Predict the structure.
Amino acid sequence: MDTMKTRRMARIIRLDVAAATALLALPIVSGAASFPSYPLQSGASQVPPNILFILDDSGSMGSLRMPTDTYGELGDTIALRSSSHNTVYYNPTITYRPWMTAQGTRMTGGTSFRAVYPDYDLAGGADIDLADEDDCSSHTQNGSWVEVCGGPGQATYYVLKSGQTADASKRERYDRYQIRLVGGAVRVVRSEWAKSGSTSNSLGCPDPGKNTFGWRNCTYATPTGRSEADEATNFATWFSYHRSRMKMAKAGAMEAFGLLGSNMRVGYRSIWNRDNFDIPVADGNSGLFEDVSSSGARTNSRSTWFARVAQARNSGNTPLQGALQRAGAYFSDPSASGPYGPEAPGSQYQCRQNFSILTTDGYWNNSWGYTAVGEQDSHSGPSIYNPIDDTNAVRYVPAPPYSAAASDTLGDIAMRYWKNDLRTDLDNLVPSTPANPAFWQHMATFGISIGLKGSLDQTSVAEVVRDGSPRKNGVNVAWPTPGSGKGVENIDDLLHAAVNGHGEFIAATNAEAFGEALNSVLGQIQARLASGSNVSTNSTSFQSDSRMYQATYMAGQWSGDIVARDVTAAGGISASEAWRVSNRIERSLTDGDTRNDFHTRPVLTWNGSRGVDFPTNSQESTLGRSTGAAIVSGEDNAAYIKGDRSNEKQRGGVLRNRSILLGDIVNSSPFYVKETNTLYVGANDGMLHAIHAGTGDVLFSYVPAGLDFAKLATLSDPNYQHAFFVDGPVAVASQSSAGDNYLVGSLGRGGKGVFALDVSNVSRPEVLWDKTAASDNDMGHVIGTPMVTKSNTGAAIAVVGNGIDSANGSAALYIYDVQGGSLLRKIVVDTGGNGLFAPRGADTNGDGRVDYVYAGDLKGNLWKFDVSGTSASSWNVALSGAPLFRTGTGQPITGGLAIAQEPGNRRIWITFGTGRLISTTDLGSTGTQSLYGIIDNQTTAISGRGELTQRRIAAVGTNAAGRSVRAFEYYSPLPAGSRGWYIDLGVPTAGERVVSGPRVRGRAAWYSSVIPDSGSGCEPGGTGYLNVLDLFTGTSPSGTGEGNSTSFFDFDSNGTGNNDTTPGSGGNMPIGSVDLGIGMPTESGQIDKVVLVCGSDGKCEDPTTTPPGGAPQRVGWREVLRDN
């Protein structure tokens, strides 16, 4: 793509978060008063996308064979009746299920061997007895009359013997199985091809004659060890619901869409344009994929879609061109009844995303319903302007791997509806992703080939884009020329369409793979809509095995995941994953290795006096549901919460289906413990999880006692509405700082409580204590990360800010004995709508014990607590009970602090940013927030900002990469007597704030600032900056560049920051702030010279930094804990 870089382009790319989620370490509290029950970063009005599923209803879909076409009933040959050769035929290693229904349950009927559905397309109608060769049924199939009868020949299948190579002409390599009546009972008879051996007429194995080959040595047996009755049921289920390509495709589609949440808008088309179901936008629910019958909203969108799929019949050729063109035309419709409705055209959502999923089992060979579009991918697209800056634009310019010489291909059609703005009357606010940079209204095309693979080496869009060209036999080639009557070239054209449509292509070679392909496509679509991230690193200096751990979640499904990626000094963040927790969980359930089995891992809780296995009797009682559509016992619900899937709807139960067993991880960031190579993170599945950092295996989980277990019971409800559970921060002491690995975590917005575990030995974790607000009205939702360290009494202590929404509305500091759990000291500093956030400590005499604790509150007070005494009773607020500093009205300190000691004079500095993102009203707040660097002179408080030196954002511009950048003032020391500095944010965009903690390394202080979007449902996300400056001056760092300054950024990778500048008043100025294009950035981390920061759109960036300029002694306990 020829891209004229603009600020708007960067902003549009970041708008993924309009329908996405994030893992910002935000000070958002739980409870009715302060915050919504959904992640605020996801947006109050997430805009559902349009998904158009296009089913191949051509005649070949009635075939009972794949990949070769065979019409009508199958003969009794190995080539036809073995899944090793006919991939749609019965495979005994698969457990077949009836089709999913709109309600998430299974269809009934057709699972008895004596009563199956013989129709090639439908799961219903007249049934036949598979045991009776005289029981027959007839129906029309692709214009021909087909008769289907029962009998042993119908229920015959051949299974390749272990260690053998498939060859249908070598019958001795296979076992034959027949399900038949023997003595009036349905039995499964196994036999083998042999010249001699026993025969038994009673088993239906007649003697073929002496010295001749035949199917001999009959026994009653099944291929997999399942019972004969279960085998007969499995075969019957396959016969009724999976026997043909059409039935297999329906099974996969209904399974995948059955797991899809309701916050989507789903339509149905067939390639022959039969019985279509456009997105129902005028029925009171904005077209959502759900069935609703209540006042103000009545729809059966979900049931109708499932019914259209289930009733589809096949006939005719394969006119894919017209089908894809009609989808594009549909997404161009501006009417109120079109895909952007139901609003009038002028009020339709500009950010609505459009996805088409085109499925086919063959080569397109018919142009019915198609109007020629010519060569689209070999001609430039129009310049598309954005609504913010109409002087710049982007456009498609032909280049590999998109362009091709042929015309009127599927690739051309997909490009036609991707490169052009389908709604020029709407602002271009469509979220962009790295896989699809289009910010205008367009159609993304996904293709699934059923049973056939093309001629190219590549099988995915990512591979083609990576290679920059199609490849055949390892050599770059032009796109093969497709056409009516062509063969595999037309499958290549489906891949080409997915490349041009910036979607994905999957060649599903068998029935099981088709269902997996659809799940993958829907997962990719949802990932484009709803992912977010936070980051923790496991090293502060570069090592070859250093890694980044990124936690994500998916809105709607409310599932979570953690991905590990290696980080190198040369290459930054690796594109490949070292592991993914969800994959490890699934593998642990199937690999037979019980050591890492997710189901058998320890799951602990607190019974009021000690740690025990989850659940306690009281918890189990509360977890039961006796009313509603999904009645469940407390025992079964506890099993579900721990990860049992057996009672989910997709398995025949009544509970909510889950695609990933880990719950959404929103505000709890992964915490890495080097000594045990373990990660800890809270999730909104009700548990804290311990994860092996080397493998991704879940080692154990903990269910805190402070949860609302009645609310937790709703987690398994199919109508589950999101709630927070274990959503707070986690801190773990290093053994060098506290004697053992003590973990202290909170519920965050999930409840009012904190808990502690001894995790020094991860194979035998010990629950130490669990505190709730049941008897303490000062305990709120603890949002700030606790601190675990050594005190001057000699005891290891947990220091906790009380958080928001306590019953007393107070700001209070809790200090617990971390081993015994006793409350050593509670210091209440303020009341009335307040709350204390993350505490940080300073060891001023270097004895390894904390002397002073600092923390900010919701009213903008910076408090200093004196804990230098050897008796806990002496610990109190310093400075005669007054705050060390007050920011002023409207500048809350919610993101945390960092503390450092200035080299040379050893002055203590506290730095932080101000702002909040707690309630929905915060989204539109434009009050001025600031960065602060405060000097504690150990004797007096600061009277106000008048004692500080004002520093400024001195320049705003764009760097060579097209990113929005800013510069702070040239380097200059603070004036004598100054108590620090401040910088007002909001330049050039109002609403900028800091809601995560800063990070200090050397002289460099790093801050992530965010700018939430507000207004229409298309802009609930945001942008932001990664900022860095000299902590001890509030300016650019000292250097040899212009103005005797330099930059901590090293964008040009020359080892200095001298060339990393932006135009400013009087000359170029060092860059100190950059919008990385990742949405709202989270708190950063660092490995050697690589700075790691992720954002609310799920992307991460890894800019490099120059040496930090000196190595001041760091006394901030947070840094000490993370370094060790």
